[in-house]
Amino acid sequence: MFLFFFCFSALLGAQTGFHLHSNKKRAKIPFKLVNNLPIVQIEINGTALSFILDTGVKSTILFSLEEADSLQLRNTTPVMLQGLGTEGAVEALRSLNNKVKVGSAVDNDHDLYIIFDSTLNFSPRMGIPVHGILGNEFFQNFIVKINYAAEVITVYDPNSYSLRPCEKCEDLPINFVGGKPYISLQVESKNVKQDVTLLVDSGSSDVMWLFDMADFIKESPPNYFKDFLGLGLSGNIFGKRTKIPKLSVGSIDLNEVNTSFPEEEAIIKARYYEERDGSVGGGFLSRFTVTFDYTNKKVRFKKNRKFKEPFNYNMSGLTLEHEGLELVKEEQHANVNTNRMNQNESHTANSISITTEVHFSLVPKYVVADVREGSPAAIAGILKGDEVLTVNGKPCYRYKLYELIEMFSSDEGKKISLEIKRGDYINKFKFNLKSIF
To answer: What's the mean pLDDT in 53-69?
Structure first.
């Protein structure tokens, strides 16, 4: 799970913002959905990079500079950023007057913030390069429709486009606080229904976070498990995960909804807005086509084909991450037809020979970053730091990291077999996915 939140020790300067060049009225921008997070390709001063589109952050943040060493940064001054987590503020640079291009959307005078802390690298947990976060400034001058099912963002010029009535949609008002969008939804426990004010946070892969555990977390018997919730700008975030009976978006109901309750010390800085009760993230948003109309302070939700999918947790208990590359040798066999003259007959005969070619390739190396206590993987004996070589008989590097996460969150009872390298030894482990609730 990933999320981003910060406040500044310096004031933000005025910006003209993004616009569509060549007088376009609309433009489509493809993205890749990874762990419920929209990853878009952008250019900063001509350098191509991959960013998370994040409504939970106001401005643009750049990290993983070792992968973007050709980037030219302009007019920099030091600042301190405070984010979710328990480790305190982090050092950064504020850079002015940058040209940022997202498809046909361009800002020629864009401010961004650069973080140099090497531990704040989200790429290993994503399995793909992620260089930064594109925040709310991208939404301010457009109507932005995010089609999570088709993995396409459409941006419209609000002067030439407006939202039409939609019977199958739910339109909710947006309240902006600190430049971030908040909406009101209704949550339900067995005992009470209540309206909650939630940050709309496309940079979080979870479904929903709530800050108040009353009526949802029970101790006898426990209806939750403790887990690593995510990595914020100020360190790791831990908390409790459970399911709540119902979440309502206007007249649209979602049942048995995954919900996380972060530890208080990790989110105390996020509660500067006293009316905030939590947030909804990509696990919620990805079940809809979501249209943001910041000018008219409105957001529209329309169900997509993922809406009825059950809410599943990672039932393996494994958290994997990408840890560099390693060299592997693969043999490829090919059948080769050869022709030869038959001495007794005046025709040629075909024969087949098998050739073997050896190829060496650099492939991703996946290691176990964490094992949840009491999980199927923990009971099977898998340990933090183990290298995963194969999954269900297939080399691990042939999977995308998000594909493995999806597999571990798929069907209860699914058999998982792993080949694990631990030190100089290779062992096999087997377990079945088991639902926590």
So the answer is: 79
